[in-house]
Design a protein that fits this description.
The complex is a heterodimer of chains A (310) and B (253). With 310 residues, chain A is mainly α. In chain A, strand 2 and strand 3 form a beta hairpin. Chain B is 38% helix and 23% strand. Chain B has ten helices and ten strands. In chain B, a hairpin with a 2-residue loop joins strand 9 and strand 10. The radius of gyration of chain B is 19 Å and the shape is globular. The chains are: A mainly alpha (310), B alpha/beta (253).
Chain lengths: 310, 253
């Protein structure tokens, strides 16, 4: 890691500070909040995919657990939203660990298949348990109260999410350039080499998988409260693919790539509004083209081109 | 007492008996070489002892304690290091980071502390970077410290593996063909390097095809052929052993 890795963080914070004062209207502020939320999820996912080299195709399922925990627990059981959010994260973490342990004993990309299945199962459960979740129609989510005042308007949410994003970028940068992060990158680079220097490969893979799942769950809760409504579409397979696409487009193993990927692909549906119904095809085409022409992703490719460190 | 004892060690891959009933022991502080024709089972033997493969039968003891079937990361905690014949370098990292990974077990690997950038962790990392750069000087890679691993030459990567293994501060190091694919000048440098490692008190087990280097460095030599032990002894004994000469030069030599 180069010393100037943190320089990017100051730029991110600067943009986040200025943005709400330059956006023309609340539509763009809403878009900015969604971008920031996706950016945090993608950061977590990139730690798993880009740095540790493990693929999850079910991250939307984890988002869904967080989102529905924040919807169901306060609505049906009167839990405090923060408590519900924590419960969602704990459930997600436990589920992720339960699935990951046996999977990582196997060599190869079995995690992709397992998470694919898990994501679909979560989605089906959310659709079918209609008495709790509202079924395919979804359900409303109560407002988030924080230390006595309620988060209601987009501006408040913007600052909360901006803070979360800044902290996540900082924590990710720290993590990558630490003994833990080096072990992760090493097991991606050469599993056997990392083992013979003492890295417990299974433990590290499980740890990073659980961490990225919990990230997703927490941001699922945030999204649920922000939007004020959850539906099973939020946890479906297409959303998982969208998140992976953000990682790949932005750049695997690039912190700032995660941000760029999230921002671009969150904005894309707005830009593609005229292709109504064909968005999936366009997403697929973008993923294919980027794999062909920029296999390393946008940020690493550009960084290499202009000779700047990531 | 010998540091490493191997008794009746065998591994079968289906019908292929890659290593068969091999017995030997290695005293602490020596350079011990394993030689033999291609396919004799040298690397397989290394993989068995370092936990990459699990033995079919037989016993491996380190300091009198059985280590057969233990995973590589458990063996690492006991001070066993190795390098690979086919490079196992993390190409997604810089050269110095590859070496730093070698010190994994000596560091605080806590996730939370890492994410929160605890000062003690950063200080230790800064020290480690110096330490790793020092090791790279030791193996002759001073000018590559900040280079990305995927931008380095084959010969340099061979030595980078040795530096990473040394970062573990091992007591026992397995070097699998450290001079393979190197030019004569580089081979002499590796020869000197292995000697320096041995002089620093680390027990060295060496697989190498360069006979000059093997004869030069080794205190004892084990000869394998078709997975079986053919001979064992000092360089002089091996050089004059008729079985060894037959295996290397053909029966009528």
């Amino acid at each position: 890691m180069k010393k100037n890795a943190y320089f990017g963080l100051t730029i991110v914070i600067a943009i986040l500070l200025v943005l709400p004062f330059v956006v023309p209207n609340s539509f763009y502020l809403d878009l900015a909040v969604r971008m920031a939320i996706n950016a945090v999820i993608v950061l977590g996912l990139n730690l798993l995919i880009g740095f540790a080299g493990q693929i999850s195709l079910g991250h939307a399922g984890f988002l869904g657990i967080g989102a529905y925990a924040s919807a169901v627990l306060p609505t049906h059981f009167g839990w405090h939203p923060l408590l519900a959010m924590g419960a969602g994260a704990v459930i997600t973490g436990a589920l992720a660990a339960l699935v990951a342990r046996p999977i990582f004993k196997l060599k190869g990309h079995y995690l992709a298949m397992a998470t694919l299945g898990l994501g679909i199962i979560i989605n089906i459960a959310l659709r079918n348990e209609a008495q709790w979740t509202g079924g395919p129609d979804g359900m409303p989510v109560p407002a988030m109260g924080l230390f006595g005042f309620e988060l209601t308007n987009d501006k408040q949410w913007y600052w909360v999410v901006a803070l979360l994003l800044s902290v996540s970028v900082w924590a990710s940068l720290n993590l990558i350039d630490s003994p833990f992060g080096r072990a992760l990158r090493a097991l991606h680079g050469s599993e056997v080499a990392s083992q013979v220097v003492g890295v417990d490969v299974v433990r590290y893979k499980v740890a990073i998988f659980v961490m990225s799942a919990v990230f997703a769950s927490l941001m699922g809760s945030v999204t649920a409260h922000y939007v004020g409504f959850v539906s099973p579409n939020f946890a479906d397979f297409f959303h998982s693919i969208e998140l992976v696409t953000m990682v790949v487009i932005g750049g695997m193993a690039s912190v700032y790539g995660s941000l760029v990927g999230a921002v671009l692909l969150t904005a894309l549906p707005q830009a593609l509004a005229t292709f109504e119904g064909w968005e999936t095809v366009v997403f697929g085409a973008i993923l294919m083209l980027s794999m062909i022409f920029m296999p390393k992703g946008l940020v690493p490719t550009l960084a290499a081109k202009f000779g700047k460190g990531d | 007492m010998s540091m490493l004892e191997v008794k009746d060690l065998s591994i079968h891959f289906g019908g292929v008996k890659a290593v068969q009933n091999v017995t030997f022991s290695i005293d602490s502080g020596i350079v011990y070489s394993v030689i033999g024709p291609n396919g004799a089972g040298k690397t397989t033997l290394f993989n068995l002892i370092t936990g990459v493969y699990k033995p079919t039968t037989g016993e491996i003891k380190l300091d009198g304690e059985s280590i057969g079937g233990k995973s590589p990361n458990e063996l690492a905690t006991r001070g066993v290091a190795r390098t690979f014949q086919n490079l196992q370098i993390c190409m997604n990292m810089s050269a110095v980071e590859n070496v730093m990974v070698g010190a994994h077990l000596r560091l605080d690997r806590n996730l939370i502390k890492a994410a929160m950038r605890f000062p003690a962790l950063k200080r230790r990392d800064a020290e480690l970077r110096e330490e790793a750069a020092e090791l790279m000087r030791f193996v002759g890679l001073d000018k590559y410290v900040e280079t990305r691993a995927d931008a380095m030459s084959y010969g340099a990567l061979k030595r980078l593996e040795i530096a990473r293994a040394l970062a573990m501060k091992p007591r026992l190091i397995f070097l699998d063909e450290p001079a393979a694919g190197l030019n004569p000048k580089e081979t002499i440098e590796v020869d000197h390097l292995v000697r320096k490692i041995a002089e620093s008190g680390v027990t060295v087990v060496l697989v190498e095809h360069d006979m000059k280097m093997v004869m030069n460095l080794s205190d004892r030599i084990l000869v394998l052929n078709y997975g079986k032990k053919l001979a064992e002894g000092t360089g002089e004994e091996i050089r004059n052993n008729p079985d060894v000469i037959a295996a290397y030069l053909g029966a009528h030599a």
